[in-house]
Amino acid sequence: MFGNLFEEEEDEDFSSSSSLKGRTTKAAEEPPPPRGRSNLCGIKNQGGTCYLNSLLQTLLFTPEFREELFSLGPEELGCLEDKDKPGAKVRVIPLELQRLFARLLLVDQQSASTADLTHSFGWNSSEGTNQHDVQELNRILFSALEHSLVGTTGSAFIQQLYHGTIVNSIVCKECGNVSQRQEDFLDLTVCVCGLSSLEEALWNMFVEEELFEGNNLYRCAQCDTLVTAAKSAKLKKLPPFMTMSLLRFSFDFAKCERYKETGRYSFPFSINLRPFCEQTDGEDSDYCYELSSVIIHKGGCYGGHYHVYIRDIDQMGNWEPPEEEDCKPRSQKKAKDEAKDLSEPKLQEDDPLSVLTAVISQEPTKSVLLDQLGQKLMEKIGLSWSKKFRKEHGPIGKFLQSHKEVFMLVSNGTRVALRANLPSPVSSQQRGTDHRLNTEPEPEPEQGSHWFDLNDSTVTSIRQSDIEKQFQGKESAYMLFYRKTQLHRPTEALKNPQYKVPSHLVQVAQEENARVQELREKFDATNNTVELRLHLVTSYRLENGALQPTHKDQSGNTNLSFDRRKTVGDLRLAIYQMQELWEGDMALTVTRSLPAGLHLYNTLTDDSVSLYSAGIHTNTDLFVWNGREVCGETVLSGAEWEPVLLTVEQEVVNGLDCRETGGAFENGGPGLKKEARGFSGGVTLEEVKEALGEAKDSLLCQEHKGGKRAEQGAGEGGGASGWRVFPPADMQRTLKELSLKDGDALLVLEPRSLDSSVFTRDGDVITVTTPSDCRWLQVEFQPHGGGGGGGGGGGEGDPGNERRRVKVPAAGNTVSHHFMDYFCCVEYCLRQVDCTGKLLSPVCEELSVRDAGVRLMTTLILCPGNAPRSSQLFLHFIVGAAPSAGVELDIIVEKSCTVREVKNKTIIHSSCWHLRKLDWCEEVGEPLVDEDMSLSELKIISGETLVVTEGKLPPKGFLTLPTWLFLEPHMMETERPQADSGHAEERLQVLTDPQCGGNMVQLRNIGQVEISEEATLENLKTQVLTLPALQSVCIPTTAFMRIRQLEGGRLGQILRGQQQTLRKRKIWGECYELLLTVKMGVPGERSYYPPEELVWVASHDPSPRSLCTFLAAHYGLSPDSLLLAKHQPEKHVWEEISTWNQQISKKKKKKKTESLLGAPFHIKDGDIIGVKNLLIDKNRDFTTQEDEQGQLRLRELVEQENAAGCNGAGSQKKSRKPEVALSINVGVFR
């Protein structure tokens, strides 16, 4: 009835598909996980088959159905191996159902697959992602089974178990004649709307009478006239199993939309149907039923998920009381928490590896669903991953991938488990504690009354009281299954999954169990092998507090593969066997490679501990030594002695090679020499000074990264750096106490160095100014043109037109002082060049290199002309056209000049011209209306371009709107004028036809309208109608007119709000109510239904998902089934709109949602949006034959734009698409 409206709801948490990239083992090689604590098997979801899984589990836990199916042997059904043989009659559906039930009962796996069963239905891979109504499936599946079992002994077992009979009676009130009609039923469909319980619905169906009276009379066959009559229905034959379908989904004819009944609707756990039956003289057991299964639907009428509550009649599962902390007494919960604290080991809450390992190891299945890992972590430590660990360790998914030696993904990437299946740290001890705590246990259900929640692959225990929670809400009961109380199970069937299972299926299950167990053992052994790197003491020496290889060209390590389930003693013995010449004791110490070298941490001393318990994982480095010394020197181990690699800078004398010292200038000036040195983190600064061989009175300085002094020093000539002198008290502190880390720089100075011009001391800050080969500016000039002068190497003998370049050190206060000794140029200025080679504004010579915006290591061009002063602006201007069409001229004006003064300084002195600015894309922008404002008040800066445009500005407070007429080739009788704002060069379109699209338009200028900014849109429309060119157009009132902007030759935003003034509504502003032309694709064809105009409110959420949801609600479809695209008529292409969004960015905050109002779509009024329903149309290509013809014309005429429209004729409503039907293909066995 509802097609595919029950689509699966997807999780947006940690995606398993994204985490598959970090897996080292292929999914095909992973064994299926074993059954959980319930000892029941779930069913895998193929993407949208939760409705099928719920119904199959219900049938499996109906023993009478299961045993009737198993009673059919190969002699009646055939063999699956013969199904491809010609002429063989193999009843595939019941055979596959037998195999599936046998796997669910006997194979030790967490979940079974229904792929073979659905393949026997004739479903393809896409059918597994389309979900349907479970009531519809129930009827179709039973019908398919009945057709498949024709001619067998089981051909009538579904009829016997599930089919009942209803008798409908009509009694004539005049003569008493009774007319009866019997009908067969598989399930009873009961009403939910307006009722509160199942009993009330059954009472209305089978007790209440419907009267035919008034205008609704009944024609009696005996009276042969219209008479008053009463109609009623009764249950004539009761089946052993009664199925009730609740009409949760209804249709609101007033709102024309589907909705789900979520009100309270109760149903009993046992019910007596005697009041609703025709024959009531039998025993009570003939009419009494008890609840055995409840299929639950979670979600709304457009999407959701199915799962099922089932009573374990044959006691095949291990039922455990579910945890209900809220229902326990306070004292009991407190005692439970105390016992839990005693049983659990002390967690290192600052170590994410330790926390996650503890969370997973304490799970019964030794694995956790990926989307539940974050919640369990919060329950463990009280903080989420984002607040506790994300800043330091990144997202939890990346953390799991970076520790592949500890964690692995199983169940096709949906669960995370430990690579070693260690026992839970709270195993037997906690169970004993629980036994002591439950001094007053809750009464457990009787045997055969245990309930389980089977939710696809997950099976959990529930209480019978949990079913009452499904009486109402979005997660509520949808189908009820009752069984007669007189149906009793034999004793040998209880707790016996093999009961009445055919022997050949038992053998197949045993073989599969053996294969799975072997696969698990191999997989377990593979995933517990770690790769270790052994560093032998004979290959290392101690230097600068760290271990360095004896030979730099040798790594000094040996790789070893080892099972981490073995002990440290086993590892030591294996290394002894590898090193036959080893003498004496052997110590194994965990080590790490640091920038300063190799450093030792903890030594493995307990030989009885496994490598896993010792924290050894893949790529762990182990140092093999005697535990005391290396090459006769004592080695300090531990985190407090971690070596630090520092950059030591020292003064060098004149004459050293710049490449060798790294700090001397080309002419042999003073500089700094840099050297990387490693020191133990536990040594003091005094010991560092001694290790460097410096005098006692020498100074140690640390690079000063902040402060006012450093900023002042850094600005001197662009090559200065600041250093802070360590006070005497810090000289006795260790490097760790001073928080020095790898890469930090230390400056070593002798007191006499402060007399040099390179080093300047101000309090505890020393400023170092070193001329460096990276502190230069390059100047390009022509020597013969007067640009050459002094020390820059004028080049009088150079060839005539050859340009020269010279490097000038950046060490001056101002630009003019900076180049005074190099270029003696009065009528020349320096200009920078951008990446395209264009000359920028001249550099102000009164400013410093930094304040003038000149970057180091850039090139300046020496050009003729004067440079502006600090109080002046250098501007470009052009007359009457854009820069690409005209010649740019330059002008230098004061910042205090007004717009009128600037205009008079140009070549135009007439009042019929005005100035405009160029916008960021070098198009003519807004006019400078107030000519009495200064350039500084208008925030005009050097380098901007002004356009001198012909035309007198309108009076202050008025707009001049040139009006244009829109011409549509096939609708010439509908006139469309258009206007353009003189303020923003924006054109407005006047429409008289609501079917205008967003394609390229043909325009004809029909005049101008001058109107006040305080006028309303209604006034603008009235004044437009007075234009002479529109006198022949028949427009009854302004209500038949639509005004739109024109942007780049395309119809843009529609102006709304009839009584809003033009100034307040800002006709060039942004609009959040968009009029879109929507086209729904015709399934299987390259064409579209007639277009519809829809108004989309994008003010709150302009994202693609919002538009998709809006269109889905309009068409009555699911948003996930729609594919959208925007049409670009000028290119004849469709641009697909993706509704996927990345949730989390790298900066620990939500990424801003993509807006369709911005790049790359820029959706505006009139844009054409294409819609495809992927449920019935698998073609994702939006291109039509007209688009291909247009693209062909564009290829032939490259520079000519095509103005052909793509609007369809008419605006008739699109017919509703056909819904996807559910079907099962059955062979012919008659």
TrEMBL record:
What ranges does the record list as Acidic residues composition bias?
1-14
Q: Which residues form the USP domain?
A: 41-485
Mention any Pfam family matching this sequence: UBL_USP40
Q: Where is the composition biased (Gly residues)?
A: 784-798
Q: Name one GO cellular component term.
A: nucleus
Map out region (Disordered) in residue numbers. Answer: 1-40, 320-348, 422-452, 705-724, 783-804
Please list which residues make up the signal peptide: none
- Basic and acidic residues composition-biased segments: 334-348
GO terms assigned for molecular function:
cysteine-type deubiquitinase activity
- Taxonomic superkingdom: Eukaryota
Protein known as: Ubiquitin specific peptidase 40
Q: Show the InterPro entries listed in the entry.
A: Papain-like_cys_pep_sf (IPR038765), Peptidase_C19 (IPR050164), Peptidase_C19_UCH (IPR001394), UBL_USP40 (IPR057763), USP (IPR028889), USP_CS (IPR018200)
Coiled coil spans: none
Q: Name one GO biological process term.
A: protein deubiquitination
